[in-house]
Amino acid sequence: MTPELTEDRIARWARQLLVPGFGAAGQERLMAARLRVVGADAVAGAALVYLVQAGVGTLWIDDPDVVAPADLEGWLYPPGSVGQPRAQAAIEGLAPLSRFVSVAPYPMGGVPTATLICASSTAQAVASAEVARRAGVPHVVMEAEGDGGTFVSVPVGAPCFSCGRVLAGTGRPPSPGAAALAALAAQELLQLIADATQKDGRRVELLRGIGSSRLTVRLPGCQCAPKPPREVAQADDDEAGDTVG
Amino acid sequence: MTSAGPLDLRRYACPITWVKTRIALERLAVGQVLEVWLPAGEPAESVPRSAAEDGHRVVAVEPLGRAGAAGDAYRVLVEKGTPAAALA
Prior knowledge:
The structure holds two protein chains of two kinds. By secondary structure, chain A is an alpha/beta fold. Chain A has helices at about 5-10, 15, 25-30, 40-55, 85-95, 120-135, 160-165, 180-195, 230-245, and strands at about 35-40, 60, 100-105, 115, 140-145, 150-155, 200-205, 210-215.
């Protein structure tokens, strides 16, 4: 059941309610949303804070690692949290920021409304993005590099993350300055939820504080291409066979 | 032409006056008229202006209340514009 946009919630999100594309309907969609965030390191911390303060209904944190000393450079973790499970430490850090949002570890098998992927490796990012795509869940995938990086938004049916990502980077390790990228990625995800009519994916690159955006294009032969109806039926039959077998 | 309200916002200040007016307008059909009561001063000036900028039509802005109290509050009538103009 969607919570009502009550007086105290209107006061909390007054200025966000005036942002084009949000409004009451968009805010209510955020309030009803369950967001899965894959990865909760120092860079992801800015995105987590942004999502909580924007008023998403439920935030699921999916990170099996523990807080590392490098995570203390971000926004979320206090010095005493090193060695604690990241998911739990993030919940403790986020809970005081809003009484309107439920923050919990990702429940195995939980189906999110949308997913933000801040994975620590490209392989994990690709795998998590593919899980979201196959489940028909809109997602945004962030790859931090130095104090900038890239994120790719993938509304349902848009070119997948593998089609949209930058294939060559310099490989610089993420720095806390990439918080700006994380906040932008979080905002992108909020817009996907608030405006369900968005169909185009895009790639945003942030380099030395300057952002650039372009629409993503499907690579020839990629499996994310929409299947003709006959192939869809065949694929459904194959999956049913797999399940029985 | 049907109407909605009155939405009594006399105890609120900016920007809540416009936020609540905008939410009420969002829930109306195009062409419906919303009656809003606003405190004098900035809200009575900025809400009609913001409504017009959002693509709605301000039908009336007039003092509200009994004789002698005029000027303390205003009655504003806003006709909802097209969704595209209102949400852009």
